[in-house]
Structures are given as C-alpha cells and as structure tokens.
Amino acid sequence: MGKGPGGKSRKSRNSAESQEDHIAGDGAIVLAAVADMAVACDVTEALHGALERQAPVVVDAAAVEELSTPCAQALAAAAASFADANIALAFRQPSDAFIAAFSRVGLYAAMMRWSFVE
Asked: Which pLDDT band, with edges at 50, 70 and 90, does 21 fall under?
C-alpha cells in the first residue's frame, strides 16, 4: 500500500476499478470532492476511453470542494481534445470551488467556452 497525502494509507487499485468509482448511474463522470492528482489520472483515463469510442460525456462537478492544478489542466486538455474531435463534452453543475480553481490557474477563459448543463 502507498501513502497518500497526509501520510494516509491508500490501497493500490487497478484503473478499471478507479474509473468505475467516478461513473454515475446516468453515465456521467463524477468528480470527487477533492479532485487531486489521483482523480486527474482516473478521470483522464475515463475521458480518453470515451474519446476513443467517440462517446459524448457529461462531467458532474457539483461536489468539487478542491480541484488541483493537474486536475484542472487535465480537464482543459480533455475539453480541447473533445472539441477538436467534434464530440460533445459538457460539465454539469460546477461548484464555486471548481470555477475558482480554473480562475486560480489561469484557465477561466478557456472554461467559459465549454458547455454547461443542469
């Protein structure tokens, strides 16, 4: 077992299990309250898979309380990739912390070009 932030133990899990933790019953990718580097990796893999399948995606950002810079960068890169491929990527109910994180890292203008749904 590896040690996560703050010295807490974190079980090593395979990618499929990690990705499943982020998929809602309606198929949306749900961001964790603390969207850190581990979440960025898991969500990137899930988004990459959807892009390969040319499947539209909704990312639920309602629960986000903290969004790391790597996670913001990963989401911005994914949004650009989906736009380039002309595949729908939308964000549902972004929390204030989600929006503030993009402002903090200088990606607010890019985020404002994305699609948002209720």
From this structure: low
- The pTM for the full model equals 0.80
User: Following CA atoms 15, 16, 18, 23 in sequence, which dihedral angle do they give, to the nearest 10 degrees?
Assistant: 140
Q: How far is CA 88 from CA 12, 16, 55, 79, 109, in A?
A: 32, 23, 8, 9, 19
How many whole angstroms separate alpha carbon 104 and alpha carbon 111? Answer: 12
Query: Are 37 and 74 spatial neighbours (Cβ–Cβ below 8 Å)?
Result: no
- For the chain, how big is the Rg over CA atoms in Å? 14
DSSP 33: S
Separation between Cα atoms, residue 59 and residue 47, nearest integer Å: 9
